[in-house]
Structures are given as structure tokens and as C-alpha cells.
Design brief:
Elements lengths: L5 E5 L2 E6 L2 H14 L7 E5 L4 E5 L6 E8 L2 E2 L3 H8 L5 H6 L3 E5 H4 L4 E2 L11 E2 L22 H9 L19 E5 L7 E2 L1 H6 L8 E7 L11 E4 H5 L5 E10 L10 E2 L29 E2 L4 E3 L1 E3 L18 E2 L2 E2 L6 E10 L5 E11 L6 E4 L4 E8 L6 E2 L7 E3 L10 H16 L3 E2 L7 H10 L7 E2 L1 E2 L11 E10 L4 H4 L29 H10 L2 H10 L3 E7 L7 E3 L4 E3 L8 E7 H12 L14
Parallel strand pairs: 1-4, 8-9, 11-27, 12-26, 13-24
Antiparallel strand pairs: 1-2, 3-4, 5-6, 5-7, 5-9, 10-14, 12-30, 13-26, 14-22, 15-18, 16-21, 17-20, 18-19, 21-22, 23-24, 23-30, 25-29, 28-30, 31-34, 32-33
């Protein structure tokens, strides 16, 4: 390699060397700005490695910036006027070298000013708009520039978890699962991005009056307290749709499944009460109520094995019950039924069940600023604290959730929502553009404290609270993490065939896994009895007989009522309790030719 020469890379491939990399970079930039080099090409110089990277490949993320030369923006007032008069368009600005696209690598060595007032001779570029820093989702969060970066990301993440109206034709769709929010509202504080993409036409949040105050410990840390009156007025109420499907499969034996109302002749018949919702065709009636595990599609299937002819020469086909039932913990109304058939003529049935999800303790809500929490308590409206004019908040948010998160945007949106409700107009909360002092002055003009606080009275005693409480309307989303879909418990039930331990998963009636780390935690606390209960009594306890001489598991011959050791026939047999999983391990070791020996200690009376 030539000494002190810079390496030149194009799309990661070394193509040559150059004596003066800075001059080469400047020349290429001039050519790009004149239109002699394609505007999608990026040139980056890394001084530390003395290398130039030229990128032309597709898939790079680029963003437009205004070019700055000698501390002055190339986007003049005359050009802005021409754009407004529609004399020139965006592409003209790129061709004329006013704007250029930078990728991550080239932007590494660029000094970008946020505002024209900040420009110095060292600056290379100027932001077109402060909002352009953010993604589409992030720029829909009002006052996001006042939030900590981590919470800004968190706020953007909850957009995909929010319950809204997923599609205009949701009534006719048969998605596997779907959430639909009742009474979605346009937010009182919006952004220009939201206006641009018109997301307000299909909103996914509601404007709730939120007071920031503790209340009897029920909203400790991130928990929320919700007003029962607000729930009754429709706050956070949604529908959950679940689709069940079945088809009349045909089998090689010439037999087929059939949609019917099963009767006593069907093997596995469940009783008349279970099939009460089914119509004559075996399909549940629209708007009939289905309990947990209730039958939604009645079906019978042929036997798994073809029967032999009986001694009388008659084949009696015993069909088996194979109805489709609703999921555990889910009950609701039959919303829609669809019957169709495949190209091969196989009949298909799809049924959509609608469950009403009314906010309850454990359901999750979140503001645009990542202030999320589950409902800790539902308080009667008459017990909620109230202001001097009788206003009662919908949510109570704990004050401790604000300082460490530094979500000042949440507080500003509260003040903006208050101003919007007083003025009767939507407030623009676009990042970097709004002067918050105007909002505070407007509050003062309407007779409110400019810090957003109000005097509150205790709902149970009527006494005035010592400190004024920060309160106002904030956009809150209901997230699809509902406690109804997550709650799980079990005492006894189905077990795995191999290990005899409880099955895994809510739908199978399985248990929650008590793993190695949980076991170690109990050992650390010295909770030996609880450890024994969880890992033996509640799992796969087994009584076995062991030979105390050779340590092998003894044979328990129940027919001859005899217990003996397979190796030393005269050994003393003791009875112990172990996990079946351990017994299985011993058997597998024997199969490998390993002799596992159990040493039985002294019995404790």
C-alpha cells in the first residue's frame, strides 16, 4: 500500500488510493451539488482511519438537510417565496444544490444547526424542520422535545399497542383476534405530522382528565386509579373479537366430518345444556351468549380406526364428538357467522365471538409520553377528590412517576389540553415550534393558575386538601394488554405423558413454571418446606420402593403382593417420595448402562 495515502471505498469495496482525501471529498460534494454526480450518492471521510467511503447502494436511510456555506443557509427568503407561489418544487431545490440527502455515515462528520439563529461558520447544514429529526410516529407525540430520549422511544412504542379502530370494515373481517375501542376521540393537543397524515380521522385514544396525586396507596409507583363513573360513561371500553373456524374434512376411508348438533349416539356427548346455543345446522346462533369453553360449532367426526364387522355382519359406526369450543377465560356473544366452501367443495365455517372488555383492575393504560400503568383500583365517583367547581378526574396518576422519568411533555400536554378545552379549539403541540409561555398566559386569562394546579377537596370527608393538585385533560390510550387474557391459575389438571409434570400454557390448563432461579431464591430464604411443596407436592410427586443395600429402585409386584430388589433379592426395602422426573432420569441412566445408586439416610421420626 502506498504510504500516507487514503483508501477509497465504494460500497465497501476498495477501489484505489488518493493523496489528498479532503480535496477529493470537497470536489465530489461540489459535483453532487451541481448535479454532475447523482444526488443519492453519499461521500464520507473518516480522519481517524484516513479513509473515504462512497455509498451508492440501495436501502440506506437518508434525510434531507439545507446546505450551509460560510455560516449562511442556501435557502434564501426569495426561494421560500417561490415555493409558496409554486414557482419551484422540492426537486428543483435538490438540483440547485440548496438541499441534499445525507445518510448516517456522511452525517457523522456534519455539524447540523436546529435553527437559523444558531448558525456559525463551522456549521455545514441546517435542519429543514426540528420535527424532521423524529420518525413519523415520534413526531406525532406533542412536546416530545421536552421528554427524556428513553421515554420518547417508549411513547412511540405504545402506538402499536393502543386499542383503536383497526380498519373501516372491521365488522366484516374475520381476523384471528381484534380489538375495537368504543368512543375514540381526537386528541386536544395535536402535531403537524398528525394533521399531515390525517391520523385524527381514525383516532386511537381518549381525552381523560388526569390529576397527579397519590390516593390511599392504590396508585403506588406506576399504578393508576380510575373513576368508576368514567368507566360507566365509556372511558377505555372496548370489544375483543376472536374468530373460531372449522371445516368438514374428508378422509381416505370415504368418511367426513359433519356440522351437526351432537346427540346421545355420539361418543363424547357433553349433554343438552352445552349445545343450547346451536341452531339445527350445528352452528351457533348470532347474538347468542357463549360461556367459557362453550360450543360454537357442533361437529362430529368418524372414528379414528375403521371398525371390524360384528358377529352379526353389521358395521355400527360410532362417530365421535369434535365440536369447536371457545377459549378459556373468554365468554361473549356470537357476532358474525360465515359459511363458505373451498375449491374442492369442502364446507368451511367461521364464527366471530365478541367479548366486552370493560376496564378493570389490572388493565393497562398509557399516555403519549410513555407514562404507562395498570389500574390499581376502581373508585366510586362519590369518593373521588373534586375541584371547587365539582369536576372529578377520570384518572389519578402518582406524582412519583414524573421526576425520575422527566416527561415534561406530559405536563405540557396537560396544560395544552386544559387550554384547548377552555378555548374550544385544538392546540398545536408540534415539537420545537410552540411557545409554552403563551399556554400559561392563556390559562391565567381564563382565571386558572398558570402552573395548571387547582384546589381539591377530599371526596369522602369534603375537607380541603392542603396542597393544590396538578390536573388537566391528557390523551390516554388503552393498551391491548388486558388482564382477562393474561390471568392464569391452576390446582390440579392435565400432565405431560413423559415427565408427569403439569402441562405448559394457559389454553392447556397448565401451570406457571417454577424454574431453577425461583428454586434458588427459596433456598436463599431457607424456605425448605415451600420449595418441597412447589417442586414435589404441586408437580410430580411419586412414592417408590428402594433397596437400602444396593440403592436400586425395587420392584413392586402388586399381583403377588411382593416387593423385592432386582439385584439383591434379600435387601431391605424402604419407601421414599421423589419427583417422577428424577425417577425418569434414573431410568434413562440405566438405559445408557450407568448404575445410579440411591443412598437412603436415617429416617427422621
Amino acid at each position: 500500500m502506498p504510504i500516507n495515502k487514503s483508501k477509497i471505498y465504494i460500497n465497501g469495496s476498495l477501489v484505489g488510493f488518493h493523496n489528498n482525501p479532503l480535496k477529493l471529498k470537497q470536489e465530489l460534494l461540489k459535483k453532487r451539488r451541481k448535479g454532475e454526480v447523482d444526488d443519492q450518492v453519499n461521500i464520507a471521510f473518516n480522519q481517524e482511519t484516513n479513509e473515504i467511503y462512497i455509498s451508492t447502494d440501495s436501502g440506506r436511510v437518508q434525510r434531507p438537510l439545507i446546505i450551509v456555506e460560510n455560516g449562511k443557509s442556501k435557502l434564501s427568503a426569495d426561494l421560500v417565496k417561490d415555493i409558496k407561489d409554486q414557482k419551484i418544487v422540492w426537486d428543483d431545490l435538490v438540483k440547485d444544490g440548496v438541499l441534499e440527502y445525507l445518510d448516517a455515515e456522511e452525517e457523522e462528520n456534519a455539524l447540523v444547526a436546529l435553527d437559523e439563529k444558531e448558525l456559525t461558520p463551522d456549521h455545514t447544514h441546517l435542519e429543514i424542520s426540528g420535527t424532521a429529526i423524529f420518525s413519523v410516529i415520534s413526531s406525532m407525540i406533542p412536546f416530545i422535545n421536552h421528554n427524556m430520549a428513553g421515554k420518547a422511544i417508549h411513547g412511540a412504542k405504545v402506538f402499536k399497542q393502543g386499542v383503536g379502530i383497526p380498519s373501516a370494515n372491521y365488522r366484516n373481517r374475520f381476523d384471528t383476534e381484534m380489538h375495537v375501542l368504543y368512543y375514540p376521540q381526537r386528541t386536544l393537543v395535536t402535531t403537524r405530522t398528525e394533521e399531515m397524515i390525517q391520523s385524527y380521522r381514525r383516532p386511537m385514544s381518549q381525552n381523560a382528565v388526569v390529576a397527579i396525586m397519590p390516593f390511599k396507596g392504590y396508585n403506588m409507583t406506576d399504578a393508576l386509579i380510575i373513576n368508576k363513573g368514567a368507566i360507566e360513561r365509556g372511558v377505555g371500553r372496548s370489544s375483543y373479537y376472536r374468530t373460531y373456524s372449522a371445516q368438514e374434512n374428508r378422509y381416505p376411508s370415504g368418511q367426513a366430518d359433519e356440522f351437526i348438533v351432537p346427540d346421545e349416539t355420539i361418543v363424547g356427548y357433553r349433554g343438552d345444556e352445552v349445545y343450547k346455543n346451536l341452531g339445527a345446522d350445528g352452528i351457533a346462533n348470532v347474538e347468542s351468549y357463549v360461556e367459557e369453553g362453550g360450543v360454537v360449532i357442533g361437529m362430529s367426526s368418524p372414528p379414528r380406526f375403521v371398525e371390524e364387522i360384528s358377529e352379526y355382519g353389521v358395521v355400527s359406526e360410532e362417530r365421535r364428538e369434535s365440536s369447536v369450543t371457545s377459549r378459556r377465560h373468554l365468554k361473549g356473544y356470537i357476532d358474525k357467522v360465515m359459511l363458505t366452501q373451498t375449491v374442492g367443495g369442502v364446507k368451511i365455517c367461521k364464527i366471530k365471538v365478541r367479548s366486552d372488555f370493560i376496564p378493570q383492575t389490572g388493565d393497562k393504560f398509557c399516555s403519549n409520553h410513555g407514562q404507562k400503568g395498570v389500574i390499581g383500583a376502581v373508585i366510586n365517583e362519590e369518593d373521588m377528590p373534586f375541584t371547587s367547581n365539582g369536576m372529578k378526574p377520570d384518572f389519578l396518576l402518582n406524582p412519583h412517576s414524573i421526576p425520575s422519568r422527566m416527561t415534561i411533555g406530559h405536563l405540557l400536554e396537560t396544560i395544552g389540553g386544559k387550554v384547548a378545552s377552555l378555548k374550544g379549539e385544538i392546540i398545536d403541540g408540534t415539537p420545537f415550534y410552540i411557545d409554552k409561555d403563551n399556554l400559561l398566559e392563556t390559562l391565567k386569562a381564563y382565571g386558572f393558575r398558570e402552573d395548571g394546579k387547582e384546589t381539591f377537596y377530599d371526596g369522602t370527608t369534603g375537607e380541603k386538601m392542603e396542597m393544590p393538585i396538578f390536573v388537566g385533560p391528557v390523551s390516554f390510550k388503552r393498551l391491548y394488554h388486558v388482564v382477562t387474557n393474561k390471568i392464569q391459575s391452576r390446582d390440579t389438571g392435565s400432565i405431560q405423558l413423559l415427565t408427569r409434570q403439569p402441562t405448559e400454557g394457559k389454553e392447556k390448563g397448565g401451570g406457571l413454571r417454577f424454574g431453577e432461579m425461583e428454586g434458588d431464591a427459596l433456598i436463599g430464604h431457607g424456605s425448605a418446606m415451600l420449595l418441597h411443596e412447589k417442586l414435589i407436592d404441586s408437580a410430580d410427586e411419586l412414592e417408590v420402593h428402594v433397596c437400602s443395600d444396593c440403592g436400586m429402585i425395587a420392584i413392586d409386584d402388586k399381583i403377588r403382593n411382593r416387593k423385592y430388589c432386582p439385584i439383591c433379592t434379600n435387601g431391605t426395602i424402604e419407601k421414599i417420595k421423589i419427583s417422577y422426573g428424577f425417577k425418569l432420569l434414573l431410568d434413562e441412566l440405566k438405559a445408557l448402562g450407568v448404575y445410579p445408586k440411591l443412598e437412603i439416610g436415617d429416617k427422621i421420626n
